[in-house]
Amino acid sequence: MAVKERVGLVVSDKMDKTVVVAIENRSPHIKYGKIVVRTKRYKAHDEENKCHTGDRVRILESRPLSRTKRWVVAEILNSSSAT
Hints:
Layout: E1 5-12, E2 18-28, E3 35-45, E4 56-61, E5 69-78
Parallel strand pairs: 3-5
Antiparallel strand pairs: 1-2, 1-4, 2-3, 4-5
């Protein structure tokens, strides 16, 4: 079984060792054909608190780490801050 992997934008880093990653899905409407943007938010584990709001990250599915956390940050693709 393949490991699920997503790329998205960090929208919140206020929790300790957890970030919220928003994944945008752009798909055409079945009947009308217009591109519809649907956003899904995932809570991901960030062990060293390296991610900040605005970073582009890759997340991997993992075992349940808490009640809502089932993903782990694999790598930071683009960092928004210069710190």
